Amino acid sequence: MSRPITISERMSTKLLDLAHQSSRESISARDEDQLLYLLVSVKRPQIDSAEYLPRNLSLIIDCSTSMRGDRLNSVKSAAVAIVEGIGPQDKISIVPFSDRAEVVYPANTVQNKNALISQISSMSASGGTEIYQGLEKGYNEIRKSRLDSYSNHMILLTDGRTYGDTKECLNLANEAADRGVDINAFGIGADWNDAFLDKLVAISGSHAIYIEKPSHAMGHLQEKIEGLGVVFASNFRLIDNFPENVELQSVFKISPYAQHFTPDGLDIRLGSLEAGSPLAMLLEFQLHIHDSTESFLMPIKMLADIPSKRIKNYSISVEFELPVSDEIDPIDPPVQVVEAVRALNLFRMNERIWRDIEGGDIPLATRRLHQFSTRLLEAGHVELAEQVQLETERLKLMGAYSESVRKRLKYGTRALITQNLINDS
Amino acid sequence: MTKQLCKECHTPYTIGALFCDECGRNLLADNKNSISDGADIYLQVKGPVGPPAEPEVLASNIEFVILNSGRRVTLPLTGEICIGRTDPNRDTNPNLDLSDDDGATLGVSRLHACLQSTENGVILVDLGSTNGTYLHEESLAAQIPSHLKNGDIFRLGEMEIQVFFEM
After folding, report:
1. Which one of A110, A160, A301, A309 is separated from A359 by 20 to 30 angstroms, measured CA to CA?
2. How close is the nearest chain A Cα to the Cα of B38, in Å?
3. What's the CATH code, domain B61-166?
4. Which of B1, B9, B19 to mutate to test the interface with A (most CBs of A within 10 A)?
């Protein structure tokens, strides 16, 4: 599409910039429901390195028996690299866990890096996996500091499933999110419970990363920790309080990473704004506009904390109006909106395929995989399309998927489908 | 209430949708710059993939020529014609039974494919067969209808069948 991009309204605030683009320029009054997409992005107008708070990190490391060997060695190497890279103001705590947890390095700045590195190196693997044990101790360490003076993050590394404590984990994640502490999860290998970890991290608007091979752990972790060092605003919440004739159906975060939220009437936690990449999301609304005399006003409101300014609940809001008429409205959305909706669509197709496979409907999953591969090709993701095609053939023959393939495609797709959008937004 | 349909998979979609929820088709390409009120894509004319069939296909009978065995079978074109292999143990009784044409060896499933007469022509649908259904040497996705023309040859696994429509 060559149509010039118009940002229908732009609101500059002192601290944050909010821009939005709509999929439609007008709404028609119809008996049936209609969809409207809004692409919303928040940026910091000017970036000043003095605006960032030091980090308060807790590394919560699964040391259960299954981590023995390459997995634990790779995680240890990544932890050592993090220790070597943290600044003099940053705090760190190290919490290995299995079916119990201990604090091998309580939350503190690092005066003697060598001593800490040797402590990390001496960690060994044994026992089962109870993630709550690790999260609880890690959270306690984080809370030993004044939370408003730091950028606070728990980093969970696990290769397993947790047993009998998922509810406690989710409760803790909720409490932590309320205090501005997020949980970032890294799943190593093929056995971890992705549905649970996705849920756990979504509470604070963070995300789970799949590490297929232990040797990849180092790169992923370092990248994540670097991002956490440049958080300007955190605890972003989209206020789910729209007019009666508007229903928020879906929130798809596309930057700094892909994440899907299904609204449940509560405010949606969107995570943090990191330097360098905006916080961008696609909102999908179902509209019930039956009367052409109705004026259509859409208020978008977000709250965020800006720790370096000691501001809680900083409000960013915008209200925009679309004309309502009896005419059939032309749809010619800006290209960024089309691409974001395409990404949401690919994301949904991908999720639906895994539900089909989990439900045992292999013929349906095979058909959808075939369509999915075509759509990926249309979107220019040639390599992923070929991989999906290959896996489709394998699924046809074998009638089942391996866990590692499932996770590779699930997380690979999530990352890839938003890659271009992140660069452009 | 009528809804517009995706031109590829015929799933209804909501006004303002940009991509088909079911098959992912870009709907903007279909309705270039406008939401059409086009009655031709409303629910009641749910039709198959591919170009519309020729008017001649309003046939009353269909003749199947099983090219591997040379056998010819004529069936009335009313309702659905199911093609496969009879298996009393599983209670499968297709209208066109290919057991005697060496169907099992040639890779024909018990319920392999079906033909149906619609107001837009005759359609062929693969029923999720093990060895696939091919039309013009292209594999058909399961449950997605394709148009059949008079004289077309389709393949079930390794078995080739030609169809002729009779008025």
Report:
1. A160
2. 12
3. 2.60.200.20
4. B19
